[in-house]
């Protein structure tokens, strides 16, 4: 029986992927590194430090940990200041409607994001009231594809993983949901989230009606 939902933030509730892209691109240009949308897509769901390592590997470059941390902080400063422009108009189409519907129907709802900036993003969107539990990049140490952030959410909601549906736009996020024994909904193309139990191209199609129709034996 489904009693709870766990939502990833970036790429599910709001499109921060573009803001992350701009901030990484800024740093990459300064460092003379190659960086494009294809690599940006590989950074979905993974932590800041893991992200910079992916970019470095792609450029066959190597730097010591301290320099890497400094550069990641530099990228983060650019990213955080770009969040000031975000408003309550910046939900992905369909996201606010689904969150509202879940509230009306009395489901438990948790956030399960790898971002250490999740609280700031929720504030900018004015989205705090939709969540009973907030799991972010500060809540657990092992990031996706490990299931820890979703297990954190289900435990805090006092639910079993098989009582929860995870919403994710990242390949590593669907892997994490599966590893934890959660049901999963993928948002995005088949090549990225085709391994989810149910997939939509965008949040606009992810209505509670569609979800209940697909997982009908679980409601
Ligand atoms: C999300 C995004 C990733 C990002 C990660 C860490 O999972 O999809 O692209 O790297 O959060 O975000 P942060 O805000 O802590 O740098
Ligand atoms: Mg995401």
TrEMBL record:
Keywords of the record: Isomerase
Source organism per UniProt: Flagellimonas algicola
UniProt gene name: pgmB
Domain of life of the organism encoding this protein: Bacteria
Family: Belongs to the HAD-like hydrolase superfamily. CbbY/CbbZ/Gph/YieH family.
Keyword Isomerase: yes
Matches recorded under Pfam families: Hydrolase
Gene3D superfamilies in the record: HAD superfamily/HAD-like (3.40.50.1000), Putative phosphatase, domain 2 (1.10.150.240)
UniProt keyword Cell division, yes or no: no
InterPro entries, per the entry: B-phosphoglucomutase_hydrolase, Beta-PGM, HAD-like_sf, HAD-SF_hydro_IA, HAD_sf, PGP-like_dom2
GO molecular function: beta-phosphoglucomutase activity
Catalytic class of the enzyme: isomerase
The protein's name in its UniProt record: Beta-phosphoglucomutase
Enzyme Commission numbers on file: 5.4.2.6
CDD domains referenced in this protein's UniProt entry, alphabetically: HAD_BPGM
């Amino acid at each position: 029986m489904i009693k709870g939902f766990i939502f990833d933030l970036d790429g599910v509730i709001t499109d921060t992927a573009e803001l992350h892209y701009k901030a990484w691109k800024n740093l990459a240009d300064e460092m003379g590194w190659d960086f494009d949308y294809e690599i940006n897509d590989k950074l979905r769901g993974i932590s800041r430090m893991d992200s910079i390592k992916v970019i470095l590997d792609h450029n066959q470059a190597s730097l010591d940990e301290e320099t890497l941390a400094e550069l990641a902080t530099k990228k983060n400063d650019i990213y955080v200041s770009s969040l000031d422009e975000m408003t309550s108009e910046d939900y992905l189409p369909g996201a606010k409607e689904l969150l509202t519907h879940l509230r009306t129907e009395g489901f438990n709802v948790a956030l399960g994001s790898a971002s250490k900036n999740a609280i700031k993003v929720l504030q900018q969107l004015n989205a705090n009231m939709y969540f009973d539990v907030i799991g972010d990049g500060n809540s657990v140490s092992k990031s996706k594809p490990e299931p820890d952030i979703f297990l954190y959410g289900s435990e805090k909601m006092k639910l079993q993983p098989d009582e929860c549906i995870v919403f994710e736009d990242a390949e590593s996020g669907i892997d994490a949901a599966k590893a934890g024994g959660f049901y999963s909904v993928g948002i995005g193309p088949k090549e990225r989230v085709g391994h989810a139990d149910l997939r939509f191209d965008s949040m606009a199609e992810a209505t509670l009606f569609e979800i209940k129709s697909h997982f009908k034996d679980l409601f």
